[in-house]
Design a protein that fits this description.
Strand content: over 45%
Order of helices and strands: EEEEEEEEEHEE
Largest sheet: 7 strands, mixed
Structural class: mainly beta
Radius of gyration: 13 Å
Number of helices: 1
């Protein structure tokens, strides 16, 4: 049974930085894709960043050049470094993982991930 647990969310001022972590009970190398999604109040969940098993990343246009996704191949941990935060980055951030093939960027757009965490709140004011 795969478990994903997010941490690192907190309140921060605009322009600040945060690093989110997602701990899995499965080595990250066991997943085809891992990613981060977020849901703002009153809005649908949206893909933020993904990383393929090869390490190749993909980003939503809204976070490109500000956010960096990475993973520790020796641990079951996924990271999201968020810089130059804006109020519109506020939301619950979810970690997701998927063991099946296909384009990770496409999965980010569709949300087709098999495993999800419970989320961590990020508030930018």
């Amino acid at each position: 049974h795969v478990q994903l647990v997010e941490s690192g969310g907190e309140s921060v001022q605009a322009g600040g930085s945060l690093r989110l972590s997602c701990t899995s009970n499965v080595y990250t190398s066991g997943f085809w894709c891992m990613g981060w999604f977020r849901q703002a109040p009153g809005k649908e969940r949206e893909g933020v960043a993904v990383i393929a098993g090869s390490g190749s990343p993909g980003y939503a246009d809204s976070v490109k050049d500000r956010f960096t996704v990475s993973k520790d191949p020796n641990k079951g941990t996924l990271y999201l470094q968020m810089n130059s935060l804006k109020p519109e980055d506020t939301g619950i951030y979810y970690c997701a993982a998927d063991a099946y093939g296909g384009s990770c960027v496409q999965k980010m757009r569709t949300g087709e991930f098999g495993y999800w965490g419970q989320g961590t709140q990020v508030t930018v004011s």
